[in-house]
Amino acid sequence: MVRGMAGIAVIGSGNIGATIGAAWRRAGHDVAFASRSPEPPDTVAIPDAIAGAEVVLLAVPGAAVPQLLADHGAALDGRVVIDATNDIGGERLNHADVYAESAPGARFVRAFNTLGFELFENPSIGGDVADLFWCGPEDAGVEQLISDVGLRPVRVGDIDAVEVVDGACRLWLTLVFRQGRPRRLAFRMLQD
Ligand SMILES: NC(=O)c1ccc[n+]([C@@H]2O[C@H](COP(=O)([O-])OP(=O)(O)OC[C@H]3O[C@@H](n4cnc5c(N)ncnc54)[C@H](OP(=O)(O)O)[C@@H]3O)[C@@H](O)[C@H]2O)c1
Q1: Does residue 22 carry a pLDDT above 70?
Q2: Which residue's CA is the nearest one to ligand 1's atom 5?
Q3: Which of 45, 57, 125, 186 is most buried, judged by most C-beta within 10 A?
Q4: Ligand 1 mean position, distance from CA 60 (Å)
Q5: Whose alpha carbon is nearest atom 47 of ligand 1?
Q6: Cα 167 from chain centroid?
Q7: If you measure from the C-alpha of residue 18 to the centroid of ligand 1, how many angstroms do you get, rounded to a whole number?
Q8: Closest CA to 9 of 46, 38, 63, 64
Q9: Residue range 45-57: average pLDDT?
C-alpha cells in the first residue's frame, strides 16, 4: 500500500508519461522520469528509476511491454506497476499475459489507458470531472494517484478485469478515430 507521497518511476516520458508525471509532481510526489537514453537530471536510466520507486508507471509503446518486462521484471518486485500502455496494432490492447511470467512479484494495475493525454492535462470538461475506469488491487493507493491527476477513479475490479477496462479504451478509440469526435472526450458514470 502506498501511503502519503510516493516515490514514482515513470518509464517513457512522451505524451502520457510527461503529462501524468508532471501532475504527480504538482501533487507532491517524488517522480523520476526514466529513458532508454537518460539525460540526468531530467531523465535517469530505467533500473535507477525503478530502484527508488514504490510505484512504476508504464508509458511506453504497447508493443514494447513484453520486452520491457522481460528486461526489468525482477526489479519490479514489491512495486505497484500501473500499465497505461495500449498495443493499438496488436491482437489485444494489453500484454497482461506476460505480467505473471515476467514480473511475478509486482502488483499490476490497469489505469490511465482509456482517455487521451489531453484529459490528464486538464481533466474537466464543461465543469464536469472525467471518470477514470481502472482495475487492480484495491489497497495499492491507486485511487489517490488518480485523484491527484484530477480525475474521479472508478474501480472495475481486480487485474483480471483488464479486458473490461480496455473496452472503455476501445469505445474511446472508436468515438475519436472512427467518428472524428474531439480527443478531449471522456466518460461519466451515473448511478443512484
Ligand atoms: N497519447 C495518448 O493520448 C495515450 C492515451 C492513453 C494511453 N496511451 C498509451 O501510452 C503509451 C505511451 O503513449 P505516448 O503517447 O506517451 O507515446 P510517446 O509520446 O511516443 O512516448 C513513448 C515513450 O516511450 C519510450 N519508448 C519508445 N519505445 C520504447 C521501447 N521500445 N522500449 C522502452 N521505451 C520506449 C520513449 O522514451 P525514450 O526514447 O526516452 O526511452 C518515449 O518517450 C502507449 O502505449 C499509448 O498507447 C497513450
Answers
A1: yes
A2: 116
A3: 57
A4: 3
A5: 86
A6: 16
A7: 10
A8: 46
A9: 97
Query: Across the chain, what does the average pLDDT equal?
Result: 96
On whether the CB atoms of residues 34 and 9 are closer than 8 A, the answer is yes
Strand residues in the chain grouped as ranges (E): 7-11, 30-34, 55-58, 80-83, 107-110, 124-125, 128-129, 131-135, 152-157
pLDDT single digits (tens) 137-176 = 999 999 999 999 999 999 999 999 999 999 999 999 999 9
- CB contact at 8 A, 29 and 6: yes
How does strand 7-11 pair with strand 55-58? parallel
pLDDT digits (tens, 9 = 90+) for 58-101: 999 999 999 999 999 999 999 999 999 999 999 999 999 999 99
Distance 58 CA to ligand 1 centre (A): 8
Ligand 1 pocket residues where CB is under 6 Å: 12-17, 35-37, 59-62, 64, 68, 84-86, 88, 113, 116-117
**CA 61 / ligand 1 centre spacing (Å):** 4
Share of the chain above pLDDT 90, in %: 96
pLDDT tops 90 at residue 6: no
Q: Which atom of ligand 1 is nearest to the CA of 62?
A: 45
Buried b (16+ CB within 10 A) or exposed e, 77-94: eebbbbbbbbbeeeeebb
Distance 128 CA to ligand 1 centre (A): 28
